[in-house]
Design brief:
This protein is mainly α. The protein is built from one helix and no strands. The longest helix is centred in the middle third of the chain and has 103 residues, at about 1-105.
């Protein structure tokens, strides 16, 4: 009778251990799946980070180009203003010469 009781206890312990092992395997599977998902997110974030760096570099190059174009436009505007001033001065000088010629005549 004691022997049968021991066998039953051992069988119950074995069943409990097998259940625990099954639970542990399931937890291990869940953790591995979470690890795979985390690795996928990491790869996605890495790709997004690389894309963001490339975009920032492109924007920086564009900003430099815009700055150079803006400087050229400002220089052209200044040259145009100088040309207008020179033209006005030349017209004023011509007007003054005409006035002198008219007065001398």
């Amino acid at each position: 009778a004691e022997e049968q009781q021991s066998v039953r206890e051992l069988a119950a312990a074995k069943t409990g251990l097998e259940a625990d092992l099954g639970d542990e395997r399931e937890r291990n599977r869940v953790v591995q799946q979470e690890l795979i998902e985390a690795e996928q997110r990491t790869a996605t974030y890495g790709a997004c980070s690389r894309d963001a760096v490339k975009l920032a570099e492109e924007l920086h190059r564009s900003a430099i180009a815009w700055k150079a174009a803006d400087k050229e436009a400002a220089e052209a505007q200044q040259q145009a203003a100088n040309a207008v001033n020179e033209s006005r001065a030349a017209r004023a000088e011509a007007f003054a010469m005409r006035a002198q010629l008219a007065a001398a005549s």
